[in-house]
Amino acid sequence: MRVLKYRKTAGTRHIKRQAINREREAVHVTAGDTVRVMRGEDRGKEGKVIRVFRKTGRVLIEGVNIVKRHRKARRPEEQSGIIEQPAPVHASNVMLLDPKTGTPTRTRIRINDDEDRTKERLSVKSGEPVPRARTR
Predict the structure, then answer these.
(1) Which of 4, 73, 99, 117 has its CA 20 to 30 A from that of 105?
(2) What one-character DSSP code corresponds to residue 5?
(3) CB 68 within 8 A of CB 81
(4) What CA–CA distances, in Å, run from 69 to 5, 83, 85, 93?
(5) What is the pLDDT of residue 26?
(6) What is the β-pairing status of strands 94-97 and 89-90?
(7) What backbone torsions phi and psi does residue 87 show, to the nearest 5 degrees?
(8) Is the separation of the CB atoms in 50 and 34 below 8 Å?
(9) pTM of the full predicted structure?
(10) CB-based contacts of 47: which residues, under 8 Å, 6+ apart?
């Protein structure tokens, strides 16, 4: 009969792996925000955030970091060829635009003192609230 060497750790191996997969990075922008790229090849371009990838800390921006992808037709009616699509950019390379002036700004959070105690983002430069664009 075979004896288990690591009986104590036999069940915890998968839990540790899932804990690593659950880790998410805090990203300062959300889908629907208008941002400006501050670093990289597309520096100075502005666009709307399409999607946020919290596992990798990257954001997909409309019209920024366009790459060419060779795509094969999956169905007979589909067209194959080279398509252009945006690729994700790291969130540290983008800044949120101030709603009042349109310049890049950092944000801070203020908790409202009313009964529901909701959070709102404030622009550091102008002090104006930055509305959250709910896409769903």
Answers:
(1) 117
(2) S
(3) no
(4) 49, 5, 7, 23
(5) 86
(6) unpaired
(7) -110, 155
(8) no
(9) 0.75
(10) 34, 35, 37, 61, 62, 63, 64
Tokens of 29: 């922008």
Q: Which domains does the chain have, with CATH numbers?
A: 26-130 (2.30.30.30)
Q: What does the CA dihedral 63, 65, 66, 67 come to, rounded to 10 degrees?
A: -160
User: How distant, in Å, are the alpha carbons of 3, 24, 46, 90, 100 from that of 97?
Assistant: 62, 24, 9, 17, 9
Pair 86, 61: CB distance under 8 Å? yes
Please state the length of the chain: 136
> Which string of DSSP letters, residue by residue, matches 73-121?
-SSTTSPPEEEEEE--EEGGGEEEEPTTT--EE-EEEEE--STT--EEE
Task: From 86, 88, 116, select the one nearest 27 (Cα to Cα).
Answer: 88
Tokens found for residue 4? 């288990």
How many degrees, rounded to 5, is the angle at CA 111 between CA 51 and CA 26?
30
Tell me the per-residue pLDDT of 71-106, one tens digit each, with 9 for 90 and over.
Answer: 999 999 999 999 999 999 999 999 999 988 999 999
